[in-house]
Amino acid sequence: MAITILAIESSCDETSAAICRDGKILSNIIATQSVHEQYGGVVPELASRAHMQNIVPVVERSLREAGVGLDELDAVAFTSAPGLIGALLVGAQFAKSLALALNKPLVTVHHMQAHVMANLIEAPGPTFPFLCLTVSGGHTQIVLCESPTQMKVIGETIDDAAGEAFDKSAKLLGLPYPGGPLIDRYAKEGNPKAYRFPEPQIPGLDFSFSGLKTAILYFIQEHTREQPGFIDNHLPDICASIQYRIVSILLNKLKKAALETGIKEICIAGGVSANSGLRAGLTEMGKRYGWNTYIPPFQYCTDNAGMIAITGYYKFLEGEFAALDAAPSARADWNQ
Ligand code: KG4
Ligand code: ZN
Predict the structure, then answer these.
(1) Nearest C-alpha neighbor of 244 from the set 325, 326, 187, 311
(2) Which of 44, 96, 154, 317 has the most crowded Cβ, counting Cβ within 10 A?
(3) What CATH topology corresponds to 126-295?
(4) Is 137 in the pocket of ligand 1 (CB under 6 A)?
């Protein structure tokens, strides 16, 4: 018998719902909240409010596009952690009410585990064990994945996430939020070796991006003092040089993790895996070191319910259900 799951994602500023049948995504609807643009970052209370407005139409559309009726659902999955607590509560409350009304099991999904699992949505996916570099606006992790439900974080950032490094650099350049995709766009026309930003020396598999942010701040202050139009006149070269350094920090640690574990199945995931420099760098490194590399399709890189659905599906197969008193959490240690 087919297993059909409705999944909800509401951890930050995307309201998303997806339908998955036997591990295949039938629909993946994402409503992005534009209300935050004018504030230069996500405003938690506005995010909760927008989720309240979006959630019913987004779920209805996900069912309609999949051609699935509520009576065909076998479970309801939702993102339970980590994220903005007010935003998570909207998705959690909706999912729990629906599971109760339909008398179907509830599945809680860890957002970061789901980013990793996005690599299993389309075939051919990686074979276990594999390594995944998960890079988003809130996290930067290297994850060792033994099975769909067994994952271990073996390296992570000690300060800013890679997405924050992109967004904060973009803000210093006067670009709107979220600046990561804009840096990517300008970088395509620039020279990545035009300016040299420092690579931090952090032991082990951990990352640090706060020094880079400070270096960029001093670089901009120094150059704009001498030439007020410096940023406007050199934007592509500055963006390409910033992107080059962020990508090299990420890929050097991923290479170290691959060498230390001997694993050659290598994935990336999370919003920053949409970055063209990172995608090209991973592919090139894969060829050099004999890795099989995997990158989820674009719509499954940034926050989406498709990744929650696929993770919920595997948890369903394992019989990992949540009680109806399950509550979301802003932070979560997921080393299990
Ligand atoms: O995974 P995600 O959608 O949300 C979080 O869970 O954080 O990641 C969002 C992050 C933002 O920092 C955004 O600037 C970054 O991903 N991002 C990019 C690109 N597309 C999204 N960063 C660099 N280049 C891109 N093309
Ligand atoms: Zn995310």
Answers:
(1) 187
(2) 96
(3) Nucleotidyltransferase; domain 5 (3.30.420)
(4) yes
Fold match between domain 4-116+300-317 and domain 126-295: yes
Four-CA torsion 96, 100, 103, 109, nearest 10 degrees? 10
Confidence of residue 62 (pLDDT cuts 50, 70, 90): very high
Q: Which residue from 325, 320, 275 is spatially nearest to 110, judged by alpha carbons?
A: 320
Segment 258-266 shows an average pLDDT of 98
pTM higher than 0.90:
yes
Other Cβ atoms less than 10 A from the Cβ of 284: the count is: 12
Mutate to test the pocket of ligand 1, among 111, 166, 331 (most ligand atoms within 8 A of CB): 166
Q: What is the pLDDT of residues 12-21, one digit of tens each?
A: 889 999 999 9
Nearest to 296 by CA among 286, 288, 307: 307
Other C-beta atoms closer than 10 Å to the C-beta of 23 total: 15
Which ligand 1 atom lies nearest to the CA of residue 164? 12
* Residue 163 CB neighbours (<10 A): 24
Ligand 1 geometric centre to CA of 287 (Å)? 25
Strand 75-81 to strand 106-110: parallel, antiparallel, or no bridges (unpaired)?
parallel
Strand segments (E) across the chain: 4-9, 14-21, 24-32, 75-81, 106-110, 130-135, 140-147, 150-156, 265-269, 292-294
Q: pLDDT of 121-162, one tens digit each?
A: 999 999 999 999 999 988 999 999 999 989 999 999 999 999
Instruction: State how far the alpha carbon of 299 is from the alpha carbons of 11, 116, 122, 261, in Å.
Output: 16, 14, 12, 30
Q: How confident is the model at residue 333 (pLDDT cuts 50, 70, 90)?
A: low
Nearest-CA residue for atom 23 of ligand 1? 180
Phi, psi of 304 (to 5 degrees): -160, 155
Asked if 62 contacts 18 with a C-beta cutoff of 8 angstroms, the reply is yes
Cα separation of 184 and 217, whole Å? Answer: 19
State the Cα–Cα distance between residues 185 and 28, nearest whole angstrom: 25
For the chain, give every domain's residue range.
4-116+300-317, 126-295
